Amino acid sequence: MEIFGYIASVLIGVSLGLIGGGGSIFTVPVLVYLFGIDAFLATEYSLFIVGISSAIGSVSYFKSGLVDSKTALVFGIPSVLSIFLTRHFLLPIIPDDIFKIGSFVLQKNTFLLLIFAGLMLIASYKMIRKNNKLTIKTEDSQSNNIFLAAGEGSVVGFLTGLVGAGGGFMIIPALVNLLKMPMKIAVGTSLVIISFNSLIGFVSSEGHHKIDWMFLGSISVLAIIGIFIGTQLSKKINGEKLKPAFGWFILVMGVSIILKEIAF
Predict the structure, then answer these.
(1) Are residues 24 and 123 in contact, defined by beta-carbon separation less than 8 angstroms?
(2) HSE-CB of 63 using CA atoms within 13 angstroms
(3) pTM for this prediction
(4) Separation CA 201–CA 205 (nearest Å)
(5) φ, ψ dihedrals at 131, nearest 5°
(6) In this structure, which of 93, 121, 127, 138 has its CB flanked by the most CB atoms within 10 Å?
(7) What are the sequence ranges of the domains in the chain?
(8) Closest-CA residue to 155 (of 59, 252, 79)
């Protein structure tokens, strides 16, 4: 199974480079089901893998002027606060056995994976559906939308801290629909936000587990290779056109995780 895990690690980067998100949606299932890593540790590894690959992938967008730094801060500051609070105060108080009904025991790892599967279903819906963008843009609505974007940044930070999801599937729609940002700039800005959030999340939780740096480094290198591939493909292929295909794939993965964790 590990060989499929290494191949999938490249796809993590390809997704990030091509559509500015979706990488973290692949990462945790790959680590848990293909490499057999504990779900809680997988969320920590995911933060590093997605964070470092997104940071490197964002460099080319910076050079091309395709990053809105101000918007990255609007998203980033509330996200970091949410990540810190979630990793330091919420996760530690979640018990190993959350509740028991008869012979069924909902354990912490299963709980995290089910939350992650739910996020996958939401992400798949956002990727599959057709986007009807608004074209009306006023000063007042733009100001209000910035506040909405900051609020969504807090939600993204919570999810990043809880399950190691970078939140690109939420960031991209917010940048495009709320702030009326062109797609390519939204992708570059999303990579900056994801890298910032994920690496802060990793640093804030580092030390809770013993890190296998050799393994983590090898997966990160493969994801970085993938993000270079995805970035190059984005110059020739419209990532928006590939989103539905990514969406259906993520939908199947999400349903499979739910069935595996509950039904089998």
Answers:
(1) no
(2) 7
(3) 0.80
(4) 6
(5) -90, 120
(6) 127
(7) 2-263
(8) 79
